[in-house]
Amino acid sequence: MKDEMPLLVDTGRGLTIKWKGLYLASSRAPEESAIRKVKSYKLNASTLYIIPRPLFSYGMQHLYETLPENSFLLLIEPSEAIMAMTGKYFPLHLDKKRCRYVRSIHAEAIIHLIKDLGLWRFRKCELIEINAPWREDSFFTDLKKTFQVELNRYWKNRLILIELGDRWIHNLVQNIKDAKPRALPQWQGPLLICGAGPSLEKCLKEIKKYRDCFRILAVDTALPSLTSRGIKVDGVINLDGQFYNMLDFYHQDDNYLLFSDLTSYAASSRGKNNFFYYTPFTQSEFLEDVQEELQLTEVPAMGSVGLTALHIALQINQGPLILCGLDFSYQLGDSHSKGGIFHQHYLNNQNRLKPDGDLTLSSLKRSPSRLMKNRYTDGLLLSYRQQLQECLKEINTKVYQWNPFYPLENLEILDANSFFKAPPVLSEISSTEQSLERNGTTPQIIEKMQEELDEIIGLWDLFQQGENNKPTLLKKLQRMDYLYLASPFNPPRPQGSPKELTMLIKRARKLNIFLQKYYSPSSVRSTERKAD
What we know:
Layout: E1 7-10, E2 15-19, E3 22-23, H1 30-39, E4 47-52, H2 60-65, E5 72-77, H3 80-86, E6 99-103, H4 107-117, E7 124-127, H5 139-175, E8 187-188, E9 191-194, H6 198-209, E10 215-219, H7 223-227, E11 235-238, E12 257-261, E13 274-278, H8 285-294, E14 297-298, H9 305-316, E15 317-318, E16 321-324, H10 341-348, E17 369-372, E18 375-377, H11 379-393, E19 399-401, E20 412-413, H12 416-419, H13 444-464, H14 470-479, H15 498-518, H16 521-531
Parallel strand pairs: 4-5, 4-7, 5-6, 8-15, 9-10, 9-16, 10-11, 11-12, 12-13, 13-14, 16-19, 19-20
Antiparallel strand pairs: 1-2, 2-3, 17-18
Helix pairs in contact: 5-15, 13-14, 13-15
């Protein structure tokens, strides 16, 4: 058992460690060997470099001196005993903004550290192999994969924010007027979660046959497919922030509970029995202030309405869950259930000159990567499927699949004939609404926003006239992060370039005009008359 403790060895050409019968660095010339390996690496910009087991930090000075802008060296030692022997050899003069030495065996703590550094700094992650053997422990390779997933998710979200961030803020400030904190309803019994994937169409006949045996929580895009077959739903998840979301609700009655994201398209939820929920779709002091004032039910920002439906289902229902239409895969030309807006759009564009409708241009045609026979997916759908698998691993509720298009792992396939032998007793839908006294007045968070916008526009006008108030202007803008959620500029923001300032003030003017129209006194009085 003497080999269980690390042993310090002086080779005469540098220090090494012998542990569990193996040398963790060269047994002959550890310093020369490490420096030779370090010099063989060509470092890239905007890259996180993970260095497993740096031991005596041989070669670190060279790596640091050749480290490009926005790259970072993260040295990790999992063993407390080895860290105690080698930590003192780390060059303490190295800037912590570009290099850090940590001891940890928890990937979550390391990912948290990297997020604090700023994910915007990195485009990729690489391992620098200096000392060996460390491959016997999968910790480092798993850590790299985990961080790469986080990084990919960040940049996908960043691109979506640039495209839709301003739209979400406009939707949010509209919905705040109607968003009241309400306790979610509590149901008991089987709950069917309906996505709009192609497998929903195959289940519609059986769903209608056994309709009295369960409640239905449908995503917005699945609503037309169900109601067109005469199937009544109990709840609908509303997530999308764009106008075409309204098409899901055309010609639909309101005899269901609507669960709307605070950034969803405002007109699609107005006038319905609505439960607003909050998703922290990005780090923002403004969004935190909104949630602090409204105290809405919080749901993780998943990006997919189907995944959102699962999280809400877990909060409102006591009983087994049944998944249908959450496919995240498709056949070419058949990505959604019939009756939905995508399918209707395809049919409406068919004519003699264009028998395929607009299939060549629509979302029904994708760039697929084959998974199995007649099953396709893409990077985005595959990430949603993986998130769904991870969510299912963490819950204790019994979950079934109903006639899946592409079965999920380790989930039982529902046999409707045996499962629904007798209709179960379903509890009444109930909820309690907490009072929120506004009396037709503008919400406090909106009043604060209007004051900030007026102030910043006034400061800008003075700056344009030659007043030297740029430091004050930048300080005020720093707090107004809702103006640069959709900014293409990297943090820290704002940096004060003429292009950036012009863009932010343009957004401020646009948002200010929108608030003046939507929250003007006449608008409030009109809302009060409608309520009467």
